[in-house]
Structures are given as structure tokens and as C-alpha cells.
Design goal:
Blueprint lengths: L2 E7 L7 E6 L7 E11 L1 H7 L9 E2 L4 E8 L11 E4 L9 H4 L7 H10 L9 E2 L5 E4 L8 E5 L3 E3 L15 H10 L10 E4 L3 H12 L5 E5 L2 H9 L4 E4 L5 H8 L5 E6 L4 H9 L1 E9 L13 H6 L3 E4 L5 H14 L4 H4 E6 L3 H9 L6 E5 L2
């Protein structure tokens, strides 16, 4: 067995570093991919900072693209050399939720992967050279190779760039799930996006394609807001220096937004998002919050004004990942514009430091090289 480089996370407040570990092997129903790129996402950052429980040591990285290197037993529909993209939700396809089409609620995925760092059979494919186990966060793609259940993969057309398309597996995938919670036709509907980083900027692209107008971007960073305009936002608001509610009312003729999509997962941004809704409006919350954080939603306003709040975690992999790829191939989602920075595998710890400091606009990717 050969060895590969992987970025190993040792636990909270301990540095991540590149190690050589044994190459993983795919089990039944699984695919080994040679990783082309992995997205740098806030959800990994929550794990790194201890804000989401996950067993250390392990390898993070949960949105990826690459080429098929090897097939596990029973895999059909893929061949060695195929270009693929992997979603962070890797459904078993057999549990009660998957049978109901709710891949985003797959029971074994959450019980085994998100809580225990395993693949769907309850074991990890990764270990150190001394044989000690390494946890896997999704497919653990901050490495040269990754094992992915075939249910979590989609084919990537030749017209899409291999490396940049990594962002289709979480940033675009999550954005698609959030936007389609309120329908696939947003023509003439007012939409406000609160926090326009990697996922938020992806929401902007898709909402603009679906006809949202006005499309309002809210953030604290002027550089991110300038990028938001380039991605389709018609109104931008800096919540540090402007009255967001007043700006949204001005943009919507005094009514407020019909749709608000909150992408950061902080109590203050969820509360801000709710305050921007018009009567009968709908807020979709996408951002994962640290620990047991809660947001205060005014109950009487929620009830009397007929508003609704929905959570959206990713999307439904088997149905939605191919659709996200199709939209990108048609030009509705530009992966090249979504990616703002590149880092080598050795620079991955720096990428997460910069993400934590709010110094990455859009989405960064890590390329093993």
C-alpha cells in the first residue's frame, strides 16, 4: 500500500499539519477519488474551533472534486478516470429518510459520520502509519485521495473546470437547497441574503438566475459587498454602518423582503434576518451555530404577521447534486467566479485562519497539486 499526504486535525487549539498516511481503500458501494480540490468552509472551521463536537484526530474537508481512481465492490455508473464532484451529505440510500427522498436527513450519515467520524458502515477508511484510527469528516477530502460512497457523487461534464467545481458539493449545493425551499421561480420576488461569504455568494448567484428582484446583500465587509454586486446583488447594505431595516424597506417600497436567507448562523444575524421580513414572508436559516446557540424570534410578530422560519441543511444529494451540476454547466452558476483564492495542501491551516479572520471573500479551495 502506498502513502498519501493528508491534513490531520489533532483537536481544538492544536495546529493542523500535513502528514503522510496510508492510502485509503474503498469498500463495497464506495469510490476512491484522486482529489483535485477541496473547498474551505465555515463548517470545517466550527469543528476546528470545537464549536461542533467531532472526534479527533481526523481529516476534514467535505466538498470536493476529482477523478475516479478505483471502484469498490458493486459500484455501477462510474468508471476509473471519470471526473466527479462529491457532496458533503453522503446518503445511505436505504434508511427510512432516504426511502422518503430525504437524503439531507439520512440517519446513518448523521449517526456514523457527523457524530463518530465513520463512513456509513461504522468504520473509517483512514489511519496513521502506526495503525491508529483517523476520523473522517464527510469524505475527509483535505488529502490526495478520498473515499466517497457512490451515492454522494455526481458526474462532472467536461465543460466545467475540475478544481473550481469542488464548490458545487457544499457552497452551491447548500445554496440550491436554501433557495429551492422557497421555490424555483423567484421572478420579481424581493430576496435579502444575510452574510455573503462562500455559501451566501452562491445563494446570490442562484437567486439572481431565478429572477429575484430586488436582490439585497447584507454583510459587514465592503469588499464582500462589492463582490456581491458582481454576482447579481442589486442592493448592498453594510450592517455595521447602515440601518439595514431602513435600507431593505427603501428597496422594497416600504414592505420588507418576501424572502430572507441567513447564512452565518449567529443569533444576531438570525434575529436581523427575521426583522427584515414583510408580512407573510419566509426566512430560511442555513448557517450552523456554535454549540447550543439560540435566537430570539418575536412570537406575536411570527403569528400575527403570518411569517415562517425554515431550516435548510445542504440539499437532497441524489436528486439535487446532479441538478446543481447541470445549472453550473448551463452557466447559471459560475464556479470560476465563486472561487476567490487557492491554497496548497500545506497552506490549508493558513486558509482556515484567514477564513476565521473574515479575510476570504467568496470561496477558497485547497489543491493537493
Amino acid at each position: 500500500m502506498g502513502r498519501m499526504r493528508a491534513v490531520v486535525w489533532e483537536g481544538t487549539d492544536r495546529p493542523m499539519r500535513v502528514e503522510e498516511v496510508p492510502d485509503p481503500s474503498p469498500g463495497p458501494g464506495e469510490v476512491l477519488i484522486r482529489v483535485a480540490a477541496t473547498g474551505v468552509c465555515h463548517t470545517d472551521l466550527h469543528v476546528i474551533k470545537g464549536e461542533v463536537a467531532f472526534p479527533a484526530p481526523g481529516v476534514l474537508g467535505h466538498e470536493t472534486s476529482g477523478t475516479v481512481a478505483r471502484l469498490g465492490e458493486g459500484v455501477t455508473g462510474f468508471a476509473v478516470g471519470d471526473r466527479v464532484v462529491g457532496a458533503f451529505i453522503m446518503p445511505c440510500g436505504e434508511c427510512r429518510q432516504c426511502r422518503d427522498g430525504r437524503d439531507d436527513m439520512c440517519v446513518p450519515f448523521f449517526e456514523q459520520n457527523r457524530l463518530r467520524g465513520n463512513l456509513l458502515d461504522g468504520t473509517s477508511r483512514l489511519a496513521r502509519t502506526d495503525g491508529s484510527r483517523l476520523s473522517m469528516y464527510s469524505m475527509a477530502a483535505l488529502a490526495e485521495y478520498a473515499v466517497v460512497p457512490a451515492t454522494g457523487l455526481a458526474h462532472l461534464p467536461d465543460g466545467l473546470p475540475l478544481e473550481e467545481s469542488a464548490v458545487l458539493g457544499c457552497a452551491a449545493f447548500t445554496a440550491y437547497g436554501a433557495v429551492t425551499r422557497v421555490g424555483t421561480d423567484l421572478r420579481g420576488r424581493s430576496v435579502a441574503v444575510v452574510a455573503v461569504g462562500g455559501v451566501g455568494s452562491s445563494v446570490l448567484q442562484l437567486a439572481a438566475h431565478l429572477g429575484a428582484d430586488p436582490l439585497i446583500a447584507v454583510d459587514v465587509d465592503d469588499a464582500k459587498l462589492a463582490r456581491a454586486r458582481a454576482l447579481g446583488a442589486t442592493v448592498t447594505v453594510n450592517s455595521r454602518s447602515e440601518d439595514v431595516r431602513a435600507a431593505v424597506e427603501e428597496a422594497t417600497g416600504g414592505a420588507g423582503a418576501q424572502v430572507v436567507i441567513e447564512v452565518l448562523g449567529r443569533p444576531e444575524t438570525v434575529e436581523l434576518g427575521f426583522s427584515l421580513l414583510r408580512d407573510g414572508g419566509r426566512m430560511v436559516v442555513v448557517g450552523i451555530a456554535p454549540g447550543a446557540a439560540t435566537a430570539a424570534i418575536p412570537i406575536t410578530a411570527l403569528v400575527r404577521r403570518g411569517m415562517s422560519v425554515a431550516g435548510s441543511y445542504g440539499a437532497r444529494t441524489r436528486r439535487d447534486l446532479p441538478e446543481v451540476v447541470r445549472l453550473a454547466a448551463e452557466g447559471a452558476y459560475d464556479v470560476r467566479r465563486a472561487v476567490s483564492r487557492r491554497f496548497s495542501l500545506e497552506e490549508a491551516p493558513l486558509a482556515y485562519e484567514l477564513l476565521d479572520a473574515g479575510r476570504i471573500e467568496g470561496r477558497a479551495i485547497v489543491t493537493p497539486g
